Amino acid sequence: MSADTLPPGAEPDEAWVGRRVTVAGLGVTGESAARVLAGLGARVVVVDGGDGERQRARAEALRAAVPDGDLTVRLGDGATLPEDTGLVVTSPGWPPSAPLFAAAAKAGVPVIGDIELARRLRRPAADGTPPAEWLAITGTNGKTTTVRMLAAMLEAAGLRTAAVGNVGTPLLDVVRSAEPYDVLALELSSYQLHWSPKIAAHSAAILNIAPDHLDWHGGPEAYAAAKARIYEGNRVACVYNADTPDGEIPVREAEVEEGCRAIGFTLGVPAPSQLGVVDDLLVDRAFGPDRRRAARELAAVSDVRPAAPHNVANALAAAALALAHGVEPRAVRDGLRAFRPDAHRISTVARRAGVEWVDDSKATNPHAAAASLAAYDPIVWIAGGLAKGATFDDLVRDAALRLRAVILLGAERALIAEALRRHAPDVPVVDLERTDTGAMAEAVREADRLARPGDTVLLAPACASMDMFTHYMERGDAFAGAVRALPAADPDTGAADGDGPG
Question: How many angstroms separate the first and last alpha carbons of the chain?
Answer without folding.
Answer: 46
